[in-house]
Predict the structure.
Amino acid sequence: MSPPTSHTGSGGPDLEELLEELRRRKWVLHLFGGREAPEIYAAVFQWQTCADVVVIRDEHRASAYRVPTFPGTDVFSPRVVTWQYHATPVWTLRAALTLAEPGTPGAPLQALRPQPGCHIPMELRADVTIRPTGTGCGFDEEKGDDGGPPACA
């Protein structure tokens, strides 16, 4: 798969700006299927008891979801999610970046069965490049705290 394109087809930030916002917020990037020509781009933001995940399959298909994390949870093959969204990469990134923080009003709490877009096949996960962009967990190094609730519920 070639890198996602920046065309949005609508007003607002384009894909490159949204990906830059993920980096600014310190999400961890995962490139599946080879470093030179990855087949799937994924980004993960780890909260204390859950993770927000974005999976970009191509310029037309992407998924985002929040998965509760327990010891042994595979965030790329969740058994349950509390929120999911499936659309183009631009709309999916917009949804993920505007999702209410865990423990705040409007944060998703219900248990849902994940759609197929919430899974990355094991055969693609054998060849992965991980690019940390920061510390994750919402931790603000300048403030010394995460500025928000510590859990997903």
The radius of gyration is 15 Å. The chain has three helices and six strands.
